[in-house]
Design a protein that fits this description.
Layout: H1 5-14, H2 16-22, H3 26-38, E1 45-46, H4 47-65, H5 67-72, H6 77-84, E2 92-96, E3 103-107, H7 109-119, H8 130-146, H9 151-173, H10 182-223, H11 228-243, H12 246-258, H13 261-275, H14 278-282, H15 292-318, H16 320-325, H17 327-345, H18 404-415, E4 420-422, H19 423-429, H20 436-448, E5 451-467, E6 473-486
Length: 487
């Protein structure tokens, strides 16, 4: 981006981050959103919970500022949230989840950038430069070695690395153990904390880009009047372009790396070891830094849900039967969407639509019907006859009941010792007693009572025993992607 007068003037007027820094309420907006969204890594919050937290914040500020606070913050909390989510502000994203009528709020990437820039304004007690220089040097070496096409030079570089490793092994065996001093440890850990926070910020921007793609697809479907095949070819081409872009490939590689259970265990072990160092404790790191890789996974899962919403929109459009049965309804909805999109670009002045206020139904006493006696049924005096059909009632007693409470207790007990556990490990520790029915209950609990991640690249086989008609034990198995339960 060129830093010239015209570009900066446009950003000053239209960019939400710049508008936030120019706002009179910037200290309130930045501090509150940082405490509620950024610090605990919350991605989405219901309007009732967010307005309650802001109301507490405003109450404390009004007590602190006295009469000046009543003048500075006169509106209710929900009005402030709606104002911050308005198009002329753009500091929050307000939306409704499918099947709910309660508004949800999420932080926009521009607001998170402004908050991150404000955090850098404060003076730091320790500013490290060595780790950044080493990181830049390592990046240059990786690019140089990764783009080298000459096999002889690649082999020479590998031999050099091997000689360096052999020399280091010899020094360690001789008793010479070079250790990082406290300054070097603080320098590198500070660089790690900055990179970890920036990675969470990048996730929100990646999710925003995919959400913009989903919005463009919905607008194109609403305004499309040609053939369905041409529209799908256009949409799938744009989606493939996003997935095959540098940003899409980088996100896919990061997500595959993070889903590896071995990598997660390695990250957990490294974080525990580093956070136990006295030099690192002197920096007073954030307590959430110990589980920052799980925050990365949660943020990446939100991005995956946005991509899934785009695929769901395409599947709904491909449903020919629903298209034919609801053609008239869809034409009306498309007309409403087209008019709504036209109004978004040039909103009219004044009231757009009027709705009658709710009123109580008045029912006069004389309009009520008179009492009508209940008609008693007449039961004929007939003798009951016993049936002659021989019906086996054993099927009524062969019903299976899976105790969900027992399975929940088993999963929580397994998660007490480690941060995550797979479905295969749960079944190995406690074999299935009711076969496939119990396995289905495990999957149901994974979507209702616990946070789960499904690794589509790893397929596991889960086995159980059932009794055959001849009394022999038969082994049954089911193959499904790896399911990981987490805290």
């Amino acid at each position: 981006m060129s830093i010239d007068f015209a570009t900066l003037e446009v950003l000053r007027i239209h960019h939400p981050a710049w508008r936030l820094l120019r706002s009179d309420h910037a200290p309130l907006v930045a501090s509150f959103l940082h405490r509620v969204f950024v610090v605990p890594n919350v991605r989405v919050m219901a309007a009732s919970d967010l307005s309650e937290a802001l109301e507490d914040e405003l109450y404390a500020l009004r007590l602190q500022m006295g009469e000046k606070g009543e003048t500075a913050f006169p509106k209710p909390a929900l009005d402030y949230l709606n104002d911050w989510a308005a198009p002329d502000k753009g500091w929050l994203r307000k939306f409704y989840r499918p099947g709910t009528d309660e508004a949800q709020f999420d932080l926009t990437p521009a607001t998170e950038k402004a908050i991150a820039w404000l955090a850098q304004l404060s003076e730091r007690q320790f500013v490290g430069t060595e780790s950044r220089l080493l990181m830049l040097f390592d990046l240059l070496k990786q690019m140089s070695e990764g783009s080298e096409a000459d096999p002889a030079r690649r082999i020479a570089e590998l031999h050099k690395k091997r000689d360096d490793i052999d020399a280091e092994i010899a020094r360690v065996l001789s008793g010479d153990l070079p250790l990082l001093d406290d300054t070097a440890l603080k320098d590198r850990f500070q660089q790690f904390m900055q990179g970890a926070r920036e990675l969470l910020t990048d996730f929100r921007e990646v999710e925003h880009n995919f959400r913009q793609l989903d919005r463009r697809v919905r607008e194109r479907i609403a305004l499309w009047e040609g053939s369905k095949g041409t529209l799908l070819e256009d949409i799938m081409g744009e989606r493939d372009a996003i997935s095959d872009s540098d940003q899409g490939k980088s996100f896919r590689a990061f997500w595959d790396f993070l889903l590896s259970s071995r990598r997660q265990e390695e990250l957990t072990e490294l974080l525990d070891r580093v956070l136990a160092l006295p030099a690192v404790n002197d920096l007073q790191p954030d307590s959430r830094m110990r589980r920052v890789h799980y925050d990365w996974m949660e943020a990446g899962e939100h991005t995956q849900r946005t991509i899934a919403a785009l695929s769901q929109q395409l599947r709904r459009f491909l449903d020919d039967q629903a298209w034919l049965e609801n053609r008239r309804i869809m034409d009306i909805l498309h007309g409403i969407e087209s008019k709504a999109l036209a109004l978004r670009e040039s909103p009219p002045i004044g009231n757009v639509i009027e709705m009658a206020e709710a009123q109580a139904d008045i029912e006069l006493a004389m309009e009520r019907p008179l009492f009508t006696p209940v008609v008693k049924p007449v039961i004929a005096d007939l003798a009951l006859q016993a049936g002659e059909d021989d019906i086996d009632a054993q099927a009524l007693f062969d019903q299976l009941v899976v105790d969900k409470t027992h399975l929940i207790r088993h999963i929580r007990h397994a998660l007490q010792d480690k941060a995550q556990v797979t479905l295969s490990e749960l079944v190995t520790a406690r074999p299935l007693q009711h076969g496939l029915a119990e396995l289905v209950v495990y999957l149901q609990l994974g979507s209702e009572a616990f946070s789960t991640v499904v690794d589509e690249n790893t397929v596991e086989s889960i086995c159980w025993q059932v009794s055959a008609t001849d009394g022999q034990e038969v082994v049954r198995s089911a193959r499904l992607p790896r399911v990981i339960f987490m805290h």
